[in-house]
């Protein structure tokens, strides 16, 4: 089975899940969208749930790649905070369907099958951020805190705007709040005497 059939099924799954949600989505609708036979579908994926898990990992990989790209080349503390927040906002807006799937549609009850792979991907993201962050903490440019606290202070506020945007509750482009989010993140993550230094 070619990679393109798998890719076509994943793209079709994303489209169908985005339109009707996971529960209402059917293998028949996904196959029709992908123009794939029943045999082709079940040769690649054992079930709708398996496709949904594979799609989750694929979208998560794309999101992590966009975030880590913001740290290349390695930025200063202020530049990194700015780039990471803007990378998150840009990805959500430019990949709206994928972002909605990742943050709104995916469900933990069918995600158990991909939990180990998800943990491995999350660990790679954390390692990439930590390679940038740890020397800056050691040099006093970033406040010491756990990696989880750091990411929650960095991305958490932006995620509130993004969720409202993705759900349709607020049609405002979340990137319009980027400058304020960056200022707030700097206050939360950097010593006061270092904030005005890039």
From TrEMBL:
Record-annotated DNA-binding residue ranges: 26-45
Cited InterPro entries: Homeodomain-like_sf, HTH-type_TetR-like_transc_reg, HTH_TetR, Tet_transcr_reg_TetR-rel_C_sf
Keywords, ordered alphabetically: DNA-binding
Keyword set includes rRNA-binding: no
Pfam families: TetR_N (PF00440)
HTH tetR-type domain mapped to chain residues: 3-63
Domain of life from the UniProt record: Bacteria
Keyword match Membrane: no
Protein's UniProt name: AcrR family transcriptional regulator
